[in-house]
Amino acid sequence: MSQSILILPGDGIGPEVAAAAKACLQAVAELEGLEFTFSEAPFGGAGIDACGEPLPEETLRAAEAADAIFLGAVGGPQWDHAPKRPEQGLLGLRKALGLFANLRPVKVFKGLEHLSPLKEDRVAGADVLIVRELTGGLYFGEKREGDDEAFDGCSYSRAEVSRIAEIGFKAAQGRKGKLTSVDKANVLATSRLWRKTVNDLSSQYPDVTVDHLYVDAAAMALVTHPARFDVIVTENLFGDILSDEAAVVAGSIGLLGSASLGASGPGLFEPIHGSAPDIAGQDKANPSGAIASAAMLLRYGLDQPKAADRLEAALEAALLHDERTADLGGTAKGSAFAQSVLAHIQTAQVMEPAQ
Does the annotation count 244 as an active-site position? Predict the structure, then answer.
């Protein structure tokens, strides 16, 4: 049965990295005997230009009907003063689809420790999954704009905290069994509710060890001892900042992908980098984050773990053995690196799942 993938190329380097991800998905599908149907729709700045809205109604309907959604990137200076910014389309899509959980893995592959600007012995073995709550907190609270005073409201309910914490606990069960909950409970009422809710849930997961860190301490530990972490669960604003900070551990924000998931319906998969309008159209963009996101789309969006394993193995092989893009100290064009990954897809050794 065919599975449908909606591609939202977006803005800046978004179309370039989305094309690389699509090519990889097509190659994996051919080898694994899968059938994917692809479609595209305007979104972000491209949606504003085409339809006057960052999330056009037709794009939303296409997203709701898809099995999975891939997003390139949104934003750019030409829309800075638009009535609606491109990023509002992303917030609207997350809300409309109920995508409350953002998964951002950060892994340092053995042999690639030197790519990090941090000391190699400091990042060796780092393998962190950041689970970020995505539809609550400051980004979705009451707002008041003003020249002399402004206001952003932050609120969380126990139900909102419980559902994201449960994803963190379950993820930890399939990894090293350690969950770190990040908050600012010494200052914020929402963080005190967050901590209490996580502690209350912990009795349901006796095989998971739980600890708590204030967000400032967590930010420091991510760059001084990243291997201490297994799964981090945190609220929207903290997760946004920490997951971008964690990119330095692996060596470049261009390496990292993400998945945004809800209780049901299609997930949204996107690299965590921005639209980088300063290099758009120059074939300089690193497609690794987009390709990693495509692998997450296979794993979490379409339930194709073997295909995901093949694509991840191909990406790792290309990073280990082939010329890298400029953000990683190499000279390869983005399209050339994508071709390297495509070549490794053909030869990737993938373990059969255990019966």
Answer: yes
Of 351, 132, 150, nearest to 261 by C-alpha is: 132
* Active-site annotation holds for 139: yes
| pLDDT value of residue 354 | 46
216 and 223 Cβ atoms separated by less than 8 Å: no
Distance CA 45, CA 272 (A): 17
110, 196, 200, 216: the active-site residue: 216
b (16+ CB within 10 A) / e for 203-219: eebeebebebbbbeebb
Q: Helix, strand, coil: what percent of the chain each, to 5?
A: 50, 20, 35
Give the torsion through C-alpha atoms of 349, 353, 354, 355, to 10 deg: -130
Is 156 assigned a catalytic role?
Answer: no
pLDDT in tens, 31-49: 999 999 999 999 999 999 9
CB-neighbour burial class of residue 32 (10 A; exposed 0-12, middle 13-18, buried 19+): middle
Catalytic member of 49, 127, 244, 283: 244
Closest CA to 133 of 53, 21, 31, 233: 233
Q: Work out the mean pLDDT of the chain and round it to a whole number.
A: 95
Calpha distance 235→85 (Å, rounded): 23
Per the annotation, the verdict on 80 as an active-site residue is: no
Residue burial 111-121, b: 16+ Cβ < 10 Å; e: rest = ebbebbebeee
Among the options 22, 67, 139, 205, which is catalytic?
139
User: In this predicted model, what pLDDT tens digit does every residue of 82-135 receive, in sequence order?
Assistant: 999 999 999 899 999 999 999 999 999 888 899 898 999 999 999 999 999 999
For the question of residue 309 being annotated catalytic, the response is no
Q: Identify the structural domains of the chain with CATH numbers, from first to last.
A: 1-99+263-355 (3.40.718.10), 100-261 (3.40.718.10)
Active-site pick, 184, 205, 300, 309: 184
Of 240, 284, 300, 327, catalytic:
240
